[in-house]
Structure formats: structure tokens, C-alpha cells
Protein: Putative ovule protein
Organism: Solanum chacoense
Amino acid sequence: MQACMDIVIPYVRQREQFGRPIGEFQLIQGKLADMYTALQSSRSYVYAVAKDCDNGKIDPKDCSGTILLAAERATQVALQAIQCLGGNGYINEYPTGRLLRDAKMYEIAAGTSEIRRLVIGRELFKHQ
């Protein structure tokens, strides 16, 4: 997600449309806000769970939850980055296409999102 932000922010400052940077347009600003909040909320959740794990409080539902949230948000952020770059988001000169493929891989490779939801649901049902 951070890599997407690192690509998009300079691009929307530099790319002009109708005589002004596209970052001045409300639609782009909304996408930037969504990308930023997805990044920060995922980062905060991961840090909180990592701190608990460091303190010996390992909770399977939170471990699964961090991967689920971060992986799905990473895919959303990569898609938003491609939208912000327009046609340039699809060409190989920009790494956004690769970032999208990498993000989607996190949803699948380390256990699908459905499996993560299953783990969380079982833990909630079992303990609450």
C-alpha cells in the first residue's frame, strides 16, 4: 500500500489535465483519502497485533484478521492507484500492475480470504 502511495502522490502532483494538476480534482482527492485511510488502518491493526504477539498474547482471530484486512485493502489500494494513473497504470513503465498482482497474491497464497474468515468466525463462535 505504501508503494502505491509513493507512486500516486508524485504522479497526481505532476500530471496535468485542463491546465492544473489532477491532484486538485475532488475525485482524485477522494481516492487519495481512501488509499491513505486503508493504509493507516491496516498498519495500525498490524502493529497492535504484533505488539500483542511480542507480549505472548497470540490470538488466532486477530492474526487472521490482520492478514485478511491488509490483503484485501492492499488490493483495493492498488486498484485505486491504477485508476489515479489512468492509462499509465496499465503499462509496464509504472509498477502499479505488478503491485496489484502482488496484493491479490496475498489474498490467495497464504490462505484465502474465505479461510481467514472461517478461522475468525470459528474463534468468535467458540469463545463468545
